[in-house]
Design a protein that fits this description.
Helix content: 25-40%
Strand content: 15-25%
CATH architecture: 3-Layer(aba) Sandwich
Radius of gyration: 14 Å
Number of strands: 7
Amino acid sequence: MIDLILHDSETHAKAFTWSGPLSLSAIEQWERRESLIAPPDLKKLWTLKGGGELFDTETILLPFATDDYDLVMPVSTAFWTRGLDTAYCVFHLGIVDSVFRKSDGGLFSLNSSDFSQMLRFRDLDEWYLRTLRSVYAEQYGLGPGD
């Protein structure tokens, strides 16, 4: 589910800058090329909004783009050289860095000092609610989350 992030994006548009929607078929081609499974709700977010900047300091990475800036694979490669298990890809950078497991799309946030310690989320809404929204809700006047 991505209802909460979409709702906040619509009602507080100034806090969200999206890159623009990507085609599902292109995302699926990227998954095949990279031999991974992206989380279904992240794929949905990419098809509706793309990646982007949230709350001035948070970045949702893109699977592909015309330049190499804020892309999943180059950022993941940098994290792999720092010790992140190659079974994971980074999809978010910010107050916490967040990854998905390539084999099944499981979502996690990283402990910045120890990549082996991760917090798992059932879907993108839970990830958003418990990470970004919990920090920025008051500052941006988002109101109560579900």
